[in-house]
Specification:
- With 258 residues, the chain is α+β, with helices and mostly antiparallel strands.
- The chain has four helices and ten strands, in the order H-H-H-E-E-E-E-E-E-E-E-E-E-H.
- It is 34% helix and 23% strand.
- A hairpin with a 2-residue loop joins strand 1 and strand 2.
- Bound molecules: dinuclear copper ion.
- Dinuclear copper ion binds next to loops.
- Keywords: Copper, Electron transport, Membrane, Metal-binding, Mitochondrion, Mitochondrion inner membrane, Respiratory chain, Signal, Translocase, Transmembrane, Transmembrane helix, Transport.
Length: 258
């Protein structure tokens, strides 16, 4: 019993973080190939950035030291140097190409909707999200649709995340190609979940589309990411990725409610 309890207490320490932490500096753990790609590209670029910072700081320090007016009272008259000018033009362009290749590959993959098995519509409202699952309906008025409101502070239960938990989560199957269609009913909103690498504007009168492929089961937290009014900070997003069997039973339960 004691062992069981200590495992239970230690569990959150080892579990993956799919919500922000206090004073967090890095990324949340990725749950989609897209977020992994974003993190990899970030690391690629930081690699070049550190090389450049070290080189430039070294040059500045050397220049300030060697060409100080006390150390070097009579300046050189050189104003051109063809070789070095060619070098300092070509080298940065090569670095830019090295950054551009993986960057474009990632950029185009963000929009690639791979034959989705499930389509979900997310609609931003002032100030909550609503979700529609129309794949399973026999007629127009039969689709699964529900609102997703933030849980207010007073109603929070122990372990729930303040300003992040909602009453009705968006439930999706893990390891399945999903298509998310995003729009808004009133003003601009933005549907964003960091660990999924998803951020898409919700625009009234327009449908935006993003692909999702969640690689593991879990609960993923996000927030509206476009200033949309007084309660912009209070319309969080919760995605619950479950196994296919659990998803099917969730859908059939929802269909019975209609
Ligand atoms: Cu909705 Cu910000």
């Amino acid at each position: 019993m004691n062992l069981f309890l200590s495992i239970l207490i230690l569990l959150p320490i080892f579990s993956l973080a799919d919500a922000p932490e206090a004073w967090q500096l890095g990324f949340q753990d990725p749950a989609t190939p897209i977020m992994q790609g974003i993190i990899d590209l970030h690391h690629d670029i930081v690699f070049f950035m550190i090389l450049i910072i070290v080189f430039v700081l070294w040059m500045i320090t050397r220049t300030l030291y060697h060409f100080h007016y006390k150390k070097n009272p009579i300046p050189e008259k050189i104003i051109h140097g063809t070789t070095i000018e060619i070098a300092w033009t070509i080298m940065p362009s090569l670095i830019l190409v090295l950054i551009a290749v993986p960057s474009f590959a990632l950029l185009y993959s963000l929009d690639e909707v791979v034959d989705p098995a499930v389509t979900i519509k997310a609609i931003g409202h002032q100030w909550y999200w609503s979700y529609e699952y129309s794949d399973y309906s026999q007629s127009d008025d039969q689709s699964i649709a529900f609102d997703s409101y933030m849980i207010p502070d007073d109603d929070l239960e122990l372990g729930q995340l303040r300003l992040l938990e909602v009453d009705n989560r968006m439930v999706v199957p893990a390891n399945t190609h999903l298509r998310l269609i995003i729009t808004a009913a009133d003003v601009l909103h933005s549907w964003a979940v960091p660990s999924l690498g998803a951020k898409c504007d919700a625009v009234p009168g327009r449908l935006n589309q993003i692909p999702l492929f969640i690689k593991r089961e879990g609960v993923f937290y996000g927030q509206c990411s476009e200033l949309c009014g007084a309660n912009h900070a209070f319309m969080p997003i919760v995605v619950e990725a479950v196994s296919l069997e659990d998803y099917i039973s969730w859908v059939s339960n929802k269909l019975e409610e209609i």
